[in-house]
Every structure is written in structure tokens, then in C-alpha cells.
């Protein structure tokens, strides 16, 4: 498979991830949507299913990282070539940006019917429940570490998961959201937050308010990067001890 094909696959896979992931948030939080107020379990399930669909769609081409933290974590432990890392990350961010625009186009009337600017930003990007940058950062580190530990465990050749890998990773993301997503909304993916936050900044959303780059350029980008690398190293240490 050519490098270009892998980059295109990461673009489309991440676009699908955000299309469905931001889509479920829009369905739950925006006014006059049929799913309004259906709650956190619906949001976390939707994100888990979004990961699953994106992974099944392009995993056979690119491995379906769909997340710079995964790409960097795998490269750090030698499971992915560093030469492909920049292209993967660029494709993931662009895919996330386009996926967010699609969600906006589908929910335009509901954005217009919603007054709360935080609800509008929350469709695109993560917002902490209690704003404390150091603790929010730590939450993203540990959440993303769990993501990498889980992914590497699920895909370990000693586990006979066959074609169930993407489903199990989707369930992993659901579990992380249910258990660890409360403090920050669990970005655990720099592209998932940065691409849609950029879309929020440039789209003509009525009454949208600030895109909160003071938070968005720190916690949901560098927290997952640190956590992804840390999680991959921890899992590798466990394997090496064995």
C-alpha cells in the first residue's frame, strides 16, 4: 500500500470519526434536535461507535490510527515508522476539520436555535467541567495512556481477536468515556479537538462565542501526546518483563 493511500485513508477515517462523534454531541446538546438531553451515555456510546466505524472503514489500508497520540505512541516504541508520522498527523487534522464542517452543515438550523455558546463549542471540541489546566492536563495524560495500553493489549498477537479488533477498540473508547471522561470530556486525541476547534473558529456560527484557544492549544493537544507516548512505553515495559 502506498504512503499516499495511507494518508488518504487516515483523512477519511478521521473525518468519519468526527462526523459521527461530533454528530452525536450535536444531537444531544443542540436545541430542537430529536436526541436533545439524551445524556452522557449516548454521547460516549456514539464516540465509541464512531471509532469502530472509522477503524473498520480504513484500518486495512492505514491501520486506522485516526489520532496523532496513537501515531506518536506507536512510533515511540518502534511499531510505526517515523517517516510516516508527519503525513499521518496532517491527514488526521484535516479529516477532523472536514468532519466537523459536515456536522455543522447538517445541524445548521439547530445551531441557530441554540443560544448557549458553550453548547455550540462543545459540539466541536472539549470543555472542562471544572477548569484547572494542570489537573485537566493530567486527566488527558492518563486517559490517553489508557487508550494506548488498551489498543496495544487488544491488538497483541497473543489475543485471538480476528476481525473484532476495531469493535473492541470502539468499546475501549466507550469505556474510557464512561469512566474517565467526566473532568475534560476526554479528547484523548489532538486531531479530534484541534481540527473541529479550528472549524468552530472559522465557520459563521451565529452567537458562537470564543473558541477558547487558551485551553485548546494546551490541554487537549499536549496532554494526549504525553499520554499516548507514556501509555505505549508502559505497555512495552510490561511486554518486555514477560
TrEMBL record:
| Protein name, per record | Glycerol uptake facilitator protein
Would the keyword Hydrolase turn up in this protein's UniProt record? Answer: no
Gene3D superfamilies cross-referenced by the UniProt entry: Glycerol uptake facilitator protein (1.20.1080.10)
Q: Which residues cross the membrane?
A: 12-30, 42-62, 82-107, 137-154, 166-188, 213-238
Keywords of the record, alphabetical order, are: Membrane, Transmembrane, Transmembrane helix, Transport
Q: Where in the cell is it found?
A: Membrane
Taxon lineage: Bacteria, Bacillati, Bacillota, Clostridia, Thermoanaerobacterales
Name the family the entry cites. Belongs to the MIP/aquaporin (TC 1.A.8) family.
Predominant place of localization: membrane
Record flagged with keyword Manganese: no
- Topology term for the membrane: Multi-pass membrane protein
Amino acid at each position: 500500500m502506498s504512503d499516499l493511500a495511507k494518508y488518504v485513508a487516515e483523512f477519511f477515517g478521521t473525518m468519519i470519526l468526527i462526523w459521527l462523534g461530533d454528530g452525536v454531541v450535536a444531537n444531544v446538546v443542540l436545541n430542537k434536535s430529536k436526541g436533545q438531553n439524551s445524556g452522557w451515555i449516548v454521547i460516549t456510546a456514539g464516540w465509541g461507535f464512531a471509532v469502530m466505524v472509522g477503524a473498520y472503514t480504513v484500518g486495512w489500508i492505514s491501520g486506522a490510527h485516526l489520532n496523532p497520540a496513537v501515531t506518536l505512541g506507536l512510533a515511540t516504541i518502534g511499531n510505526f515508522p517515523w517517516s510516516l508520522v508527519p503525513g499521518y498527523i496532517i491527514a488526521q487534522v484535516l479529516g477532523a476539520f472536514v468532519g466537523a464542517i459536515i456536522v455543522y452543515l447538517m445541524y445548521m438550523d439547530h445551531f441557530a436555535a441554540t443560544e448557549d455558546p458553550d453548547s455550540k463549542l462543545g459540539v466541536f471540541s472539549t470543555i472542562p467541567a471544572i477548569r484547572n489546566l494542570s489537573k485537566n492536563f493530567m486527566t488527558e495524560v492518563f486517559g490517553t495512556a489508557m487508550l494506548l495500553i488498551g489498543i496495544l493489549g487488544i491488538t497483541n498477537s497473543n489475543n485471538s481477536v480476528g476481525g473484532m479488533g476495531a469493535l473492541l477498540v470502539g468499546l475501549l473508547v466507550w469505556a474510557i468515556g464512561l469512566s474517565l471522561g467526566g473532568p475534560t470530556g476526554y479528547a484523548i486525541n489532538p486531531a479530534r479537538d484541534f481540527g473541529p476547534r479550528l472549524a468552530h473558529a472559522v465557520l459563521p456560527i451565529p452567537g458562537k462565542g470564543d473558541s477558547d484557544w487558551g485551553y485548546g492549544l494546551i490541554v487537549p493537544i499536549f496532554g494526549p501526546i504525553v499520554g499516548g507516548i507514556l501509555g505505549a512505553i508502559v505497555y512495552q515495559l510490561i511486554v518486555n518483563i514477560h
